[in-house]
């Protein structure tokens, strides 16, 4: 039977469809982007030829084992994913060029704890280049189960998928995928959406897991359509800090942070160091972001006990205040939200009478880690107070707490765990909010910022 085809006009920029040609796309606003595209109508009515409507299943009859997890063999990756790789799931990994996306996928292909086959699809490297990288990384185990396919053609990929039937599919990268049915421009928005959707559908139908890498724009967002992030189950961002002095100046620290996770928390963070043997998970992060120095702390430096997911990390917070160079004071902070710095400085000026409105504020987190947890606010307040007054804090003091606009110190999660971790790392005192349930040994409790300053300095 001859296939019936109709014509539509599709925007090459955003994929919007119109029945007739338009000069400007009403969706994205681009000019002269509509291209004539043939639509295949042969699939219409296919469900009628299969013997009726699709069948539903009661939720109680579904076996929960079908949604089980596979251990990746990489501790930090399992932590970020929520305990392992979920079957029938799709994961999108984005990051800057050279940050380690391909290295992570290659190490994952060898370390994943499964007896099934693994298919590594590369549209950017040849098979010889992949073997050289594997030898450089010291990958020797399970190499016989790793199948390599170097192409971006979707039709060829689907043929190999149906023949190999892998349990784990790794694609590097989504921008290199193309199909004759996805549009006329390889690497375009339509190509990415069409090819990624086909691969995601195959993985979910065949009880497999899919990993896709993606490039990022200069703003740090995943390049391509935002629809791609909605299609997958998990979105991970690879971030890189500066050469960290906290690691001796030789190790390069990478952070794997989830932006979306249907099967776990988005508060977890995976920490790796990049070396000659590839990415190495960092399990003991207690002193990772503390600057090693002898003697007393300089003014403007505090140690914050922040919570990243389920573990406590001690981070050195540094602050500097100088007279404003212009009529308006400015805040320079990229690792801690500048709006949070402004709110904390306003609370200090209101409740302690500490003038900060005529000062330029510089705030930094040692080690290059980006902190979003509210428990850093009390430590940030003491860093600003110490920098403005020139009074240094005790070197063995760790701080955690949320500072409200009224000057109150609000409770934070897992306070006892923060105190315990700090004590294990040699911090003799801990300043924070009062515990709600029971007293915490070693805790200096304070109800507001005034009493907190008095407990440390003896006066305001």
Overall outline: globular
Q: How many DSSP helices?
A: 10
Give the class from helix and strand content and strand pairing: alpha/beta
| Average pLDDT reading | 86
CATH architect. name of the largest domain: 3-Layer(aba) Sandwich
Number of domains: 3
Beta-strand proportion: 25-35%
CATH superfamily of the largest domain: P-loop containing nucleotide triphosphate hydrolases
Low-confidence stretches: 42-51, 243-250
How far is the first residue's CA from the last residue's CA?
88 Å
How are the strands of the largest sheet arranged?
Answer: 8-7-9-10-6-11-12-13-14
The CATH topology of the largest domain: Rossmann fold
CATH class of the largest domain: Alpha Beta
Overall radius of gyration: 27 Å
Feature tags:
single chain, 460 residues, alpha/beta, Rossmann fold, Ribosomal Protein S5, domain 2, 3 domains, nine-stranded mixed beta sheet, four-stranded mixed beta sheet, 10 helices, 24% helix, 25% strand, globular
How would you describe the overall organization of this protein?
The protein has helices spanning 75-81, 101-111, 127-137, 154-164, 189-205, 227-231, 338-352, 377-389, 415-424, 449-457, and strands spanning 5-11, 17-18, 34-40, 69-70, 85-86, 90-95, 118-122, 146-149, 168-172, 209-214, 234-240, 252-261, 270-275, 278-281, 301-308, 311-323, 331-332, 359-365, 397-399, 402-403, 409-410, 429-432, 443-445. With 460 residues, it is an alpha/beta fold. Helices cover 24% and strands 25% of the residues. The chain is globular. The strands form 6 sheets. A 9-stranded mixed sheet has the order 8-7-9-10-6-11-12-13-14, with helices on both faces. It has a 4-stranded mixed sheet with strand order 15-16-18-17. The protein has a 3-stranded antiparallel sheet with strand order 2-1-3, with no helix packed on it. A hairpin with a 5-residue loop joins strand 1 and strand 2 (17-18).
């Amino acid at each position: 039977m001859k296939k019936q085809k109709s014509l539509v006009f599709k925007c090459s920029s955003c994929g919007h469809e119109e029945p007739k040609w338009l000069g400007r796309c009403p969706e994205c606003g681009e000019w002269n982007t509509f291209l004539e595209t043939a639509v295949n109508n042969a699939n219409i009515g296919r469900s009628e030829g299969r013997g009726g409507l699709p069948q539903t299943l009661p939720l109680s009859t579904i076996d929960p084992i079908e949604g089980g997890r596979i251990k990746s063999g990489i501790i930090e990756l399992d932590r970020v994913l929520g305990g392992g790789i979920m079957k029938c799931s799709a994961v999108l990994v984005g990051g800057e060029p050279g940050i380690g996306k391909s290295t992570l996928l290659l190490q994952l292909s060898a370390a994943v704890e499964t007896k099934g086959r693994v298919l590594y699809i590369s549209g950017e490297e040849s098979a010889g280049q992949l073997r050289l990288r594997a030898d450089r990384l010291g990958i020797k185990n399970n190499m016989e189960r790793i199948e390599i396919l170097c192409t971006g053609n979707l039709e060829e990929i689907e043929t190999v998928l149906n023949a190999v039937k892998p349990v784990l599919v790794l694609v590097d990268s989504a921008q290199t995928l193309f199909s004759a049915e996805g549009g006329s421009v390889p690497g375009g928005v339509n190509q990415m959406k069409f090819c990624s959707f086909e691969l995601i559908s195959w993985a979910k139908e065949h009880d497999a897991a899919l990993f896709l890498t993606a490039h990022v724009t200069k703003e740090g967002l995943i390049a391509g359509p935002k629809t791609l992030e909605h299609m997958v189950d998990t979105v991970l961002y690879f971030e890189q800090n500066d050469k960290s002095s906290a690691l001796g100046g030789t190790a390069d620290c990478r952070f794997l942070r989830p932006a979306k996770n249907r099967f776990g928390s988005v508060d977890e963070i995976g920490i790796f160091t990049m070396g000659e043997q590839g990415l190495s998970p960092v399990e003991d992060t207690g002193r990772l972001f503390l600057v090693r120095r002898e003697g007393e702390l300089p003014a403007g430096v505090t140690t914050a006990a922040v919570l990243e997911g389920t573990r406590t990390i001690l981070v050195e917070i540094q602050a500097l205040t100088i007279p404003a160079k212009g009529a308006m004071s400015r805040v320079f902070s990229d690792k801690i939200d500048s709006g949070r710095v402004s709110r904390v400085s306003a609370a200090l000026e209101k409740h302690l009478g500490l003038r900060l409105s005529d000062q330029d504020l510089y705030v930094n987190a040692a080690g290059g880690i980006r902190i979003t947890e509210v428990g850093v606010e009390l430590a940030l307040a003491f860093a600003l107070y110490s920098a403005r007054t020139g009074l240094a804090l005790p070197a063995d003091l760790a701080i955690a707490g949320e500072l409200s606009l009224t000057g109150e110190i609000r409770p934070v999660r897992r306070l006892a765990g923060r105190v315990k971790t700090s004590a294990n790392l040699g911090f003799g005192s801990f300043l924070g909010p009062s515990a709600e349930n029971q007293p915490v040994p070693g805790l200096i409790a304070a109800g507001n910022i005034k009493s907190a300053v008095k407990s440390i300095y003896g006066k305001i």
